[in-house]
Each structure stands twice: as structure tokens, then as C-alpha cells.
Amino acid sequence: MRRVYLATTLIFWLLVSAFWAGSLWLPSAEESVAVAAEKVITQSELVRHALPDNCWMAIRGKVYDVSAYLPEHPSRPDLVLPWCGKEATEAYDTKTKGRPHSAYADELLATYRIGSLATDKQ
Amino acid sequence: MSLLRRSSIPLLLLASTAGPVYWAFPEGLSPARSLGIVLGWAGCGLLLASLLLMLRETWLSRWLGGLERMYQWHHLVGMAAYVLLLAHPLVLAADAWPASPVLAWQTLSPFSQGWPVRLGWLSLLLLMLGLAATFATRLPHRSWRWLHVSLGVGVLVGLWHLLQLGIEEPVLPILALAALFLGWRILREDSGLAARPYIVQSATPVADGMVEIALKPLAEPIAATAGQFVLVAFFAGPTFRGCGEFHPFTVSSIGADREIRVGVKALGDCTRRIQSIEPGVLARVHGAFGTFLAERPAAPQLWLAGGIGITPFLALLRTGPLSQETTLVYLYRAEADAAFLQELRALAARDPHLSLQAVATGNEPPNLDSLLPTAGELVQHECYLCGPPGMLAAVRQSLHKRGITPRHIHFENFGFR
């Protein structure tokens, strides 16, 4: 039993170190998706994607298709779904007790980015 | 042991694992993320079962096949839960790796995420520390126990981690059960509420570093039979100061007036102090536990005792003459270590069914091939063994070589901690 404990604990820390090292030396998601994120999406197109299985949100000027992620979101669906098809920056920045989402959430969000929200002039 | 008792712990584990996994089984997620979630819930269920298995209640131990068996499973299940819970965050991070290695690290890192992940990390670190202490057998018993408590705290923090993730429905009942089991253990067992008050009547040195203590009940006595053990905490007397911790001791005698006697060998700080115990010391006794020597068939028997392992056999011999042909092999280092040897010789001289073979082995491991009866002599015998784990393993191996199947080998060791 002692051997199992030592072996699994050692493997755990080695893998944690490998994930940390990978995050330092391998390219980040932000860079890899940025190239494909140039499409400009208008407000009228955004509102057409307001359903749970077709849910776009605009956050800080960028548009994200979060349909695939919604089933994984930790909070209750009735908190998130009303923001589909809308500018949701305020909701994103005022999670529990007015706190913004974490750096992890920012990184995760980047992987769902599909374009930029058109300004009024566009 | 009946089939129901043998299967009680596996069934308990199946229910405690399958229940939360079924409830939380993910739909529509990637295989790796689903696996990560299932691992977390399975680990959580196993930890809950492991907490139940550390309770020391006589009725519960009867249902689950004895306290020693419960403790073996408690260790095994705790370790299995630890391995699953170590894998849980790693698999969740691996799921994010194809999207981005940075995302994978942020899934795992306690620095980039909020309190849910930090609490998950704290829980894992407490489990890691508690298990490290569990395996550090050289630690003094008191320090060892406090570090072992960090495992219980780790379980509660792990459940808090789930609450922080916004999952309340199955977590609140699990948290209530975990708190109940921990509180039960602390209040009823560690604080001694489940134990009965006794007073030390006499203390007789029976070998080097071993004393036999007679305990008289001050209220309703416990129910004990030969072969069982009790948990006893010794407190203060006129000049003696006990350590007040519950330790397991095998019952060596059960008197008609419900007085019990226990054999205490100096194995650690607390038991070393008990060697100088005096009459009048107050004690609390919890039990009795164990099924060793219970339901013995009418077949001829081989009993093998190593050192202090003689006490359960002595307790049975003191209840009266045997009805089965019995060979008792008693192994000890030297005459000075041979507790109760004179009494055993007298008992063997009086009982025509008992044959005693007392052997001083010295400091070397005994030559079991010459000590044990031959395969022919052991046909249709039931074998009962009690002694240190190393000796038991060697004897069991020798008996297997002589064609004795595990079903006919019953044993109790001193690995109870």
C-alpha cells in the first residue's frame, strides 16, 4: 500500500509539472485562434443566435459561440441562457458577488471566439 | 463467515460509488471530461464508505464481518479513493490540452482559478499529508493520530469544493453523512461515550515487558467472549497517569463476575507506561470486537501463537476443557518472553484434548517446516493463528504447502492501527 501511495503521488506531481511546463513552452489558444477571429458580426446577426443550442454572446467587443460549452457551465442554466444573443460583458464581469470570471474562464472563452462585434458605424 | 457478511462491504462500496456516479453521470460532454467527472464522484463515494468503515461499533462490526476486516477495507478503500481523486483533476486538464496547453494548465492551476479549484487542491493536499502520516509507522501514536485527522478534514474540504462549484443536490446529504460519521467517531469512540467505566483490580507482570490487567466493571459490563479484543483507555490512579487513549487489547480472561483481564505488551509510549499501572486506576472499555475463535467446528485443531498472540487461546482455555483434539504451538523468543507458560503447561496436563508445544525460537525466524505438523497429521484440521504479521505470513505459506486451503486457516494479527 505504501508503494502504491508513493508511486501514484510521484506520478501525480510529475504530470502536474508536465502541464505547467506545457503551458510555458507550447503556443497558447489565444494565439492559435486569433487568426480566425477577424469576422465582424453585426448586432442583428447576434440576436438571431439566442437559443440554448445556438447561443452567441458578445463579451468585451468579441463574439463567442458558446453553444457547445453551455452544458458544461457550472452555474444553473437560467442564469446563463438569458444572455444568449446579447451583449453579455456586464454579466461576464459580475459573476458571484460582482466578481469577474477567472483567467481560466478567459482562456476557455477564447477557444469559442468566432469574430468581433460590429460597432454602430460598421 | 456467512455469505451476507462476506459480501456486505463490497455491496456497501458498490452502492456508495454507483449512487453519486449515476446521479452525476455527464451527458453530451467529451469522453475525457466525462471520465474526469466520474472519477471525482467515484472517489467521493469511496471516501464516504471509508469513513463509515472506521466506526467502532459492536453491532456495525457484526454486520460487516468484524472490526479488523472493516479496518483492512478502510485502508484499501481510502487508498483507492485517493488514486481516483488524484486522477480527477489530471484528466480534466488533459481534456483541455488539445484546445490549448495553457487552458489545460489553467484548468489545473490553483493560481488561475477561483475558490472551487483552490479548495479541491487543499483537499488533495490534506489527503496526501494524512496518508503520508498513515504510512509513517515510526511516528509517535499521538502525532500519528492528529495527522491522520487531516484525512477527515480533507474529505470535508473536498465536499466544500463541490458546493463552491454550485452543486448542492447530492453534496449536502453526502456532507451531512460525512460530518455524522466523523462526529460519531470523535464523540462516541475517541471521547469514550460508547465505552463503559471499569477500575483496575490488579496488574500482574507475566513476561518481560508484558502485564496482565484485571478490570472490574463499575456499571453495566461489556459482553465479551474468548478470542475477542476490547479498546481500553486508562486514566489516572493514586500515582499512575495513563495516556487516556483507546488502544486494542486482547481479552485473556472473562470471569464469572464479569471481570475481564487483558494482556498489555509494551509496544509503544502508551503501552510502556501501562506496564507500571496500579490497582485503582480508572479505565473505559469499549467492545468487545472480533470473531476469531467464534463458531469453531468440531474438527481437530491446530492453534499457533507467536508471543502475545497467546492471549486469545489462553482466554478460551481458561473457560474450561476443550471438546476438540487441539495442538497448541506456542512460539516465543526466550523463556523470559513466554507469558503464561506455567499456566499453559498446567492446563495441558489437566486437559486430555490439549497438546502443548512450547518453543523458544531465539532471535532468528523459526524453522516452521520442523515445527509444524506434517501434511498427513493436518488432514481435516482447522488452523487458528495469532501473532505478528511477518510470522503469520510465513505460517500461512507453510500451511498452504501442506495442502491446507485458506478456508481452513483463521488468523488474527496485530496490524490494527
From TrEMBL, chain A:
Entries under SUPFAM superfamilies matching the protein: Cytochrome b5-like heme/steroid binding domain (SSF55856)
GO molecular function: heme binding; metal ion binding
Domain Cytochrome b5 heme-binding, first and last residues per copy: 38-118
GO annotations of cellular component type: membrane
Record key words, sorted: Heme, Iron, Metal-binding
Family recorded in the similarity comment: Belongs to the cytochrome b5 family.
Record-given protein name: Cytochrome b5
Automatic annotation (TrEMBL), chain B:
Keywords from the named record: 2Fe-2S, FAD, Flavoprotein, Iron, Iron-sulfur, Membrane, Metal-binding, Oxidoreductase, Transmembrane, Transmembrane helix
Residue span(s) of domain FAD-binding FR-type: 193-295
Transmembrane residue ranges: 34-55, 76-99, 119-139, 146-164
Subcellular location field: Membrane
Claim: Membrane is one of the keywords in the record: yes
GO function term, MF aspect, one: 2 iron, 2 sulfur cluster binding
Membrane-related topology note: Multi-pass membrane protein
Major localization class: membrane
Cofactors that this protein relies on: FAD
UniProt xrefs under Pfam families: FAD_binding_8, Ferric_reduct, NAD_binding_1
This protein's name: Ferric reductase domain protein protein transmembrane component domain protein
